[in-house]
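User: For a reading group we're discussing how well predicted structures match intuition. Take Membrane associated rhomboid family serine protease. Before you show the prediction, I'll give you the sequence so everyone sees exactly what went in.
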Amino acid sequence: MSYEPPSYGAQPTTEPEGIPVCPRHPDRVSYVRCQRCGRPTCGECQRPAAVGIQCVDCVNEAQRAMPVQRTAFGGKVQAGGRPIVTYAIIAITALTFLLQFAVPGLQRELLYAGILTGSEPWRMLTAALLHSQGMIFHILFNMYLLYAIGGMLEPLLGRARFLALYILSAIGGSVAVLWLEDPRVAVIGASGAVFGLFGALLIIMRQRRVNYTGILVTVAINLVLGFIPGFNISWQAHVGGLIVGLAMGAIFAYTPAGPRRATLQWAGIAVVVAALLVLTYLGWIMLPSRYLG
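Assistant: Thanks. Here is the predicted 3D structure of Membrane associated rhomboid family serine protease, as structure tokens, for the group to look at:
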């Protein structure tokens, strides 16, 4: 009599052969098959298609193969077209405004003055999140303009380009304050960033041959208000933000379409960043000679 030792290798399956299971979830039996690849797909992996059901893998593959739709200025077309970045900036700015009342000293820690450039340069951006606590119209007016112009520009430019425009315009306003204002004078507000949006919108409307007289008049009126005593408006921030916005608007509007458009646009944005860095450095090192010499 022969003896065969028990096998400790593969264990016999407990499921009959031929029962279809989901490739992503082998423990789930599924008699529903993907209309594209024919594999079984469980309820979690099923995606409704024009005809029948497709599995999640086939849907993802089809989305990757689909060409990305672009706007006339190179921005990615977003489903629904909602200006998410605009809404986010408004929410963050509104929250910061409330925190100015709840957190003592917050405004002092985030405002910008030229004399603080060398030690705390981040204030050149954080000042755009602050607004006057004694004048609610300040934040309401800026956020209304951001909502109105952002709702037009963000879908055209795409989220990344729009965010770059807003941030660099805010910094551009601070750079102008560094060069044109007494370095001991503190400034707050998103006006420089908003004027950057105005500047970009002017260039884009001109490039598309749309009547921009109304926008031009609005910009001119707000610039003039900055020079009237008693309004306590930083015209320097307005001018700086506007110049940056005009420059970036020209980059977005006049970069030729083609496969290299995005690369050229971001290269242009890098040039704007470099120019702001150089102007900030020169403005800082020249402060003693301009105000103490």
